[in-house]
UniProtKB/TrEMBL annotation:
InterPro entries: Aldolase_TIM, MJ0674-like, Pyrv-formate_lyase-activ_prd, rSAM, rSAM_sf. Pfam families: Radical_SAM (PF04055). This is Radical SAM core domain-containing protein. One of its GO terms (molecular function) is iron-sulfur cluster binding. Binds 1 [4Fe-4S] cluster. The cluster is coordinated with 3 cysteines and an exchangeable S-adenosyl-L-methionine. Residues 264-274 have a biased composition (Basic residues). [4Fe-4S] cluster binds at residues 75, 79, 82. It comes from Lasiosphaeria hispida.
């Protein structure tokens, strides 16, 4: 709300320029999105799957009235275990212009009476998001903006968002490049996430709240504990404490389930020897090492590592009827 008209005009101009030569996310596709698409398969319009008040977020995000969630289709990652793959891996939904998107924010505010506008998986449509926020601001939007991301963001996109986003909600998934290459299809994920989260922290600081416990401004980091990768989770907690802030608000999530491509049958190579063909093998599953639920011990390892590193603000169930601050 404090952005000057000059700065707003500069951001609009930069957003349009990025659409004409899209190198804003780490994929660096370099395409003109008015004419074609890059890796994310999205053009100059955002594709929206769901817009509605949502009650599946952290208590301090959803509050009593819900978070005004906007689920964008597609993503700039291809996580094999994606817990939201029916949206993030498929081009389902409605194409909307930035102005139409901004109008939806106003409907969520004025009709839905939500606590915030929650932009879910927006890394690949930052120019459209910037234009939509500026449009909504000019027409009366006053709610906090949440940027709900995988943390696979470039510093250029975060610079464009500076002054427009109140709450950053990054998910730091894995630590090792070999893991991100295999499971996220992005070698540089961890290095990018580290830079991105530090830039987010520099912009908005530690998470702070309204008097009634609703998140108002700051960074909330999520980590989905993966089966067999608790050591990487522990390393992520150490990074957050040492390089971001010991007051960082962290949600150590335990709801991993095998999904997307995990557990699907492997396809064997078909060979032609006269009339002999090898067909799809039964019993062999893809990504079998993560084809199970996470254990209580694995979650405990990550939590203890976080506490040992000095982190203390966790998204735990409140011991009273309110929210944890």
């Amino acid at each position: 709300m404090t952005l000057s008209s000059v700065d707003a005009a500069k951001k609009r101009s930069a957003a349009y320029a990025h659409l004409r030569n899209c190198n804003l996310c780490p994929q660096l596709c370099g395409v003109n999105r008015y004419e074609t698409t890059g890796m994310c398969l999205i053009g100059d319009k955002a594709k929206v799957n769901v817009i509605a008040p949502h009650f599946g977020e952290e208590p301090c995000i959803q509050g009593h009235n819900g978070s005004g969630s906007v689920f964008f289709s597609m993503c700039n990652l291809r996580c094999v275990f994606c817990q939201n793959h029916d949206i993030a891996h498929q081009r389902n939904g409605q194409d909307v212009t930035p102005e139409e998107l901004g109008d939806w924010y106003l409907k969520l505010q004025d009709v839905g009476n939500v606590h915030n506008i929650n932009l879910i998986t927006p890394e690949h449509i930052v120019p459209q998001v910037v234009l939509s926020i500026l449009h909504a601001r000019d027409h009366g939007l006053s709610l906090p903006i949440i940027y709900n991301t995988s943390a696979y963001d470039s510093l250029a996109s975060l610079e464009l968002l500076d002054g427009l986003v109140d709450i950053y909600l990054p998910d730091f998934k894995v630590w090792e490049p070999v893991t991100s290459r295999r499971l996220l299809k992005a070698d540089d994920y961890a290095a990018t996430a580290r830079k991105s989260i530090k830039a987010m922290q520099a912009q908005v600081g530690d998470l702070c709240f309204t008097a009634d416990g609703i998140a108002k401004k700051g960074v909330l980091v999520r980590h989905l504990v993966m089966p067999g990768f608790e050591a990487e989770g522990a390393r992520i907690m150490q990074f957050l404490a040492e390089d971001v802030s010991k007051d960082c608000f962290v949600n150590i999530m335990e709801q991993y389930r095998p999904d997307a491509y995990v557990g699907r049958s492997k396809k064997r190579a078909k060979q032609s020897h006269k009339n002999q063909h090898e067909t799809e093998g039964e019993g062999e599953k893809r990504y079998s090492d993560i084809n199970r639920a996470v254990s209580a011990d694995e979650i405990s390892v990550v939590r203890k590592a976080a506490e040992t590193a000095g982190l203390w603000r966790f998204c735990d169930p409140a011991k009273h009827d309110g929210f944890n601050l």
